[in-house]
Amino acid sequence: MTERFSEQLNNFDEQNPLEQLIERLKPLHSILSQNSYVKDTTTRLKRIIDDADSQPIVLFIGKERVGKTTVINSLIGRNLLEDRPSEPTRTNTFLKYGDEEYIKAVFLNGMEVIFDIANLSLFTISNSESAQIIRKHLDYLEVYITCELLKKVTIVDSVALETGANNTAYFSPALLQRCDEVFWVLQAGSPATEAEVNFIEKLNKTGITAHLVVNGIDRVDGEVEAFLEVEKERYGYYIGEDVPVSALQAQEARKTNSTQLLIDSRITQLSQLMFQLIDNKQKKTRHTTERFLQWLERMRVEMNTIPAREPYVSAFEYIVQHQVDLHIDAAQLQQDKALITSFEKQYETVSKVFKEVQTLFQLLQTLESYSYLHDPVVDMYEEKAALYQKNVRDYRKLHVDYMMEYGQLEKLFKKQTGMSLAFPLEESELSSIVSEQIQTLNRIRTECEQKLMSIKKYEQFILEKLDSVQIRLNDLTKKQLTTIRNQVKELEAQQIRKQSKMISYANKLAEFSCMAEAQSFLKDAIEPLLLERVLPIKKQEEAYIRQTIDHIMTVDFSYEAPAVADSGEMLAQLNLKEKYPLFELRLSEEDIVSDIPELPGIIEI
Q: Tens digit of pLDDT for each residue in 227-266?
């Protein structure tokens, strides 16, 4: 048993048995409330606690049009509930005391909504489309009104008994179980049906003794006693007390302030009997104990089915499989770390791809090395720039050839004439060899001129397109960096999805840790109270209690907490954009244009 409840449990000695039981059930309910998958079972336990803590609950049942609602209105002294014969009660309604009057609608999903008291008929008798939609999801109503009688008792106006085949009748077992006393209403002069008798007999066999209220005695002219005798001969051994009343006379007596008419209605005898019955604290203690034992059986079934149903089974299997695969996860983590290192190196390389590019030649080398820097626009620019550089190289080579030929011509001319070479030359001064070299020089010069024209053409193109291509290349670089960051994000997302799945399953299993806590609390705190003869526990029930709680204890909710391989911290620290800022391409015209020697002049003769 957990320590958080030990101090509270030490204070039970001076409490009466019912209070001791309820005070021990409250922490049990608190433990189970941590698990949303046993919500219905937890809600049922809460109702046991609330019903035991509140006034006794008295239920009025019967078939349609016997006057259940009218009898209840007579008891509370006001026509609160609509009692039209053509519109039967369609919602089980708990009447409780309240300093402020309002309606609390309790829906099947556990949600509670407050409404104004003026909307009561919408829930109880209205057959409108909106009312039908609301009641489809409604469990029951709690109506809080200022009424002295309700300070001592809660009264339930119920829907009519449902009759079925073979003279059977049905009523909500859950509602019957909540009530301390049951009053069965008959219309005077209208004998109980076979289905009703079978239902009352069935109730009696389950430990519920209904008390008979015969309504409408003002309509049978004093023959009510004879009617009662005949009815009691049929099923008297199944019922408890009987009270003949006239709800209509009681209502009329209050309207006219007639004491005699109120006496004739016998409604005060019904209220006195009701108070006499509910004053039996031992019966209430026994009733609450029985409800808890029934709940305990439900809890046993619930405990046994949890490990075999969703979401527990999937979560448990996933966690177990994860523990088996831990070495695989560790290897995967190492692979992920290596991949992250690779991504980081790629990012760094791409971010600096243009850092050292200061010339057209370096740009072309870079473009040749990285495929991500290509698209049709860049490819065309690269092609023209390559042709530009090829023509520059060709021009330089031709120029070198020209200068070498020119040097040889100078030497030859001086050797033959003894003079330095000067232009223009007289044809008479030229030997055939000199003439031939001059022709070679002029031919080379013509080739240089043609190359120079090509150079200017390509130079014009690459200069005009320089800015747009640089923008395009910087965009391609940014795109590549984004691709790498996205790859890192996808790896991170995979890790997050994996860890989230693990955390989700671990959290689901953690929700069931309270079941182990509940097991311990049942064994250490509840079982001793049930067996120490403080509560009205029958001898044969003691063995059942031990067996049931022992059975509950056999369900194993233990598991090894999962170890999660975490690469999240490393990913979080890998802020690539800040760590490796982009060096954009920033070439000027001077960086692009190659220096070339001037075109030689034509040698004229």
A: 999 999 999 999 999 999 999 999 999 999 999 999 999 9
Question: How far is Cα 241 from Cα 273, in angstroms, rounded to an integer?
Answer: 8
How far apart CA 460 and CA 128 sit, in angstroms, is 86
Residues ≥6 apart with Cβ < 8 Å to 265: 74, 218, 245, 246, 247, 248, 249, 250, 253
Distance CA 482, CA 479 (A): 5
Q: How far apart are CA 73 and CA 242, in angstroms?
A: 19
Q: C-alpha distances in angstroms, 179 versus 150, 210, 378, 470, 540?
A: 15, 11, 86, 86, 24
- Looking at the DSSP bridge assignments, the partners of residue 57 are 154
377 falls in which pLDDT band (50, 70, 90)? very high
Mean pLDDT across 67-90: 87
Phi, psi for residue 215 in degrees, rounded to 5: -100, 150
DSSP state of 152: T
Cis peptide before 424 (omega within 30 of 0): yes
Q: Residue 339 pLDDT > 90, yes or no?
A: no
Residue 55 burial class via C-beta count within 10 angstroms: exposed 0-12, middle 13-18, buried 19 and up? middle
E strand or H helix at 339 = helix 326-351
Helix then strand then coil, % of the chain, to nearest 5: 65, 10, 25
Q: Is 144 within 8 Å of 101 (Cβ atoms)?
A: yes
Q: Coil, helix or strand for 390? A: helix
Contacts of 53 (CB under 8 A, 6+ apart): 22
Q: List the strands of the sheet with 93-97, edge to edge.
A: 112-115, 102-107, 138-145, 93-97, 154-157, 57-61, 181-187, 210-215, 239-245
Residue 342's SS3 state is helix
Q: Are 470 and 585 in contact (CB under 8 A)?
A: yes
Task: Count Cβ atoms below 10 Å from residue 193 Cβ, excluding itself.
Answer: 15
Q: What are phi and psi of 498, to 5 degrees?
A: -65, -45
> pTM for this structure?
0.66
Q: Where are the alpha helices (DSSP H) in 206-325?
A: 224-235, 247-256, 259-265, 267-278, 281-305, 312-324
Mean pLDDT of the region 360-367? 95
Q: What is the distance of C-alpha 424 from the center of its chain?
A: 98
Residue 2 has what pLDDT?
42
Question: CA dihedral defined by 4, 6, 10, 11, rounded to 10 degrees?
Answer: 20
**Comparing C-alpha atoms, which of 340, 293, 294 is closest to residue 495?**
340
Residue 480 makes CB contacts below 8 A (sequence gap 6+) with 350, 372
Q: Is the peptide bond before 597 cis (omega within 30 degrees of 0)?
A: no
Asked whether 61 and 210 are in contact (CB, 8 A), the reply is yes
pLDDT exceeds 70 at position 570: no
189 contacts 216 by C-beta, under 8 angstroms: yes
Place of tokens 């204890």: 553
Residue type, 175: L
